[in-house]
Write a structure and sequence with these properties.
Residues 1-23 form the signal peptide. The chain is α+β, with helices and mostly antiparallel strands. The protein has helices spanning 47-68, 76-81, 92-107, 117-128, 135-145, 172-187, 280-303, 343-347, 395-399, 403-415, 503-510, and strands at 24-33, 36-44, 150-152, 158-160, 194-198, 201-205, 210-214, 228-232, 236-242, 247-250, 253-256, 270-276, 309-314, 319-321, 330-331, 349-356, 369-375, 381-388, 433-438, 451-460, 466-475, 480-484, 491-499.
Length: 511
């Protein structure tokens, strides 16, 4: 077994405990950062010091995005590809990432290729016509992908060998995580513990305990229970890639958004791949490569790398680990565990979709406090599906801004002893899009009785507005087709649907 001191997995939910001498844990959350969500956990002596680190991190992310973004025509990457920047004038950051990308293209036998976006474009264009690409179109593109994209010289010059578009999305986010951590260590040397999570890819400094949960790729709602969870007590770097949130649909069939550069076909066997490595850039690239390589080639690669481990979730529900995968993982509570082999059962329940609105003219704003729950006819909160709030400073001051949830939860705590605060993050989502799921149980895991309930969505945002949506629903034997709810200043694309449990299923849950 390979030596590995890191304990990790992405597709994660996390919280930090274990106080540091003369320091507190401060959590910051932002949306629409690099097109996804950002979460920071900073151990700092006070709020002012934590705020300073937050501002510096956001500034550094902006600086890095100006180098690597493929969505900004003025980024260094895009200007270089347009011939507006000479190869000899590239920044050290861009050259470093291009070199590492070529390293992984070589090591994976072409499974990782930063020109794979050309395949995505080919398939997307064909999908719009309701068909898959022709073999001729696919083979024409593959004839270019077999050759290296550029030549690297000893003088750090990168000379293009073809004109295919380059995207660094599969490695640059990890590199940015590494760069942020290096910056924190360099400029804030007194900070012992620091965690940054961007869209489910994570880098952690320090030894403060970090709880990490494995999300079920077939049941990805914010409130779904994880497949596994464990606590990491050492620095970690990890990334996840997969097709469970994004896919193409052609003639009623779903295809992975991850393509094999060696065949030009969508990757098929692996639904999600989670990787821990010595740095986040390598973890990022490997997570993508493993989705292409599949379990046999993928595990063979990982077993030959030092300080690198993986967890693969297969299309058929199997979970495959490398030999050194963390030994302290635990399955979730049995009554809350989503069973992979029972797809029909997990489809029953109440599904709620919503999107957090991006303020006009705003960059990465702080994520609002959000609560999504069910009340019975007496106003008692029987089940909270989503609860986003800061548990560290200045959390308590803002908890009360979720006025209805906060008031009702104080009532609930008289009856129950469960702790509801928690957050789950998964693979990259579209900016601000989320879903919540009610599985038919209450906060204690007991089946909900048939009857009338009120679905509540409450949002409170610093420097924003307060919004509350309440919608009565009938929990019983009749399904509810998708119903749209009125949008507001903080949320849009709000809808819900209800799928009743079959009688045999309900009897099993109650037993």
């Amino acid at each position: 077994m390979k030596l590995l001191s890191l304990i990790c997995l992405s597709l994660l939910a996390f919280g930090v405990s274990g106080p540091i001498v003369n320091a507190e844990d401060f959590r910051f959350q932002h949306e629409h950062v690099l097109g996804t969500s950002l979460e920071l956990i900073v151990a700092a002596p006070n709020q002012s010091a934590a705020d300073k680190i937050e501002r510096r991190v956001l500034h550094e992310i902006d600086r890095q995005a100006a180098i690597f973004s493929r969505y900004d025509a003025q980024s260094e990457l895009m200007q270089w590809q347009a011939g507006q920047i000479a190869s000899a004038d590239l920044s050290a950051e861009l050259v470093t990432v291009l070199k590492r990308a070529e390293h992984w293209r070589s090591v994976t036998g072409g499974a990782f290729d930063i020109r794979c976006g050309a395949l995505t474009t080919l398939w997307e264009n064909s999908a719009r016509q309701g068909m898959v690409p022709s073999d001729q179109a696919r083979q024409s593109m593959l004839s270019q992908l077999v050759r290296p994209p550029y030549q690297l010289s000893n003088s750090s010059q990168v000379d293009r060998l073809d004109t295919m578009a380059i995207s660094l999305d599969g490695i640059a986010k990890g590199y940015i995580l590494d760069a942020i951590c290096e910056m924190v260590q360099r400029e804030f040397s007194s900070v012992r513990d620091f965690t940054i999570n961007i869209g489910g890819d994570l880098r952690k400094l320090g030894d403060a305990p970090l709880e990490i949960s494995v999300v079920d790729p077939r049941h990805t709602a914010e409130s779904a229970r994880p497949l596994e969870k464990f606590v990491a007590t050492q620095p970690i770097a990890m990334a996840t890639s997969g097709d469970y949130r994004r896919y193409l649909e052609i003639a009623g069939r779903r295809y992975s958004h991850i393509f094999d550069p060696r065949s030009g076909l969508p990757a098929g066997e692996v639904t999600s791949a989670s990787v821990v490595a010595e740095n986040a850039a390598d973890a990022d690239a490997l997570a993508t490569a493993l989705c292409v390589l599949g379990p046999v080639e993928g595990l063979a690669l990982i077993e030959n790398l030092t300080a690198t481990e993986c967890c693969l979730v297969m299309q058929d529900g199997r979970v495959v680990h490398s030999s050194g995968w963390p030994l302290h993982s635990q399955t979730a509570a049995p009554q809350m565990l989503v069973m992979l082999q029972d797809e029909k059962k997990q489809e029953s329940g109440l599904w709620v979709d919503f999107s957090l609105v991006r303020p006009q003219g705003g960059r990465g704003y702080r994520r609002p406090y959000v609560a999504v729950w069910l009340e019975d006819t007496d106003g008692f909160p029987v089940k909270t599906a989503v609860l986003w709030m800061q548990t560290e400073q200045p959390g308590p001051r803002w908890h009360r801004d979720l006025t209805r949830w906060y008031r009702n939860d104080r009532l609930r705590q008289v009856v129950e002893e469960t702790e509801l605060i928690g957050t789950i993050s998964g693979a990259t989502r579209g900016p601000g899009n989320y879903d919540a799921y009610f599985d038919g149980t209450d906060n204690a895991g007991k089946p909900l009785k048939p009857g009338t309930y009120t679905l509540c969505l409450e949002v409170a945002r610093e420097h924003g507005s307060y919004q509350l949506i309440r919608e009565k629903i009938e929990w019983g034997e009749k399904p509810i087709a998708k119903k749209d709810l009125k949008e507001n200043a903080e949320m849009d694309k709000i809808s819900y649907r209800y799928v009743p449990a079959k009688k045999a299923e309900a009897k099993t849950d109650a037993s």
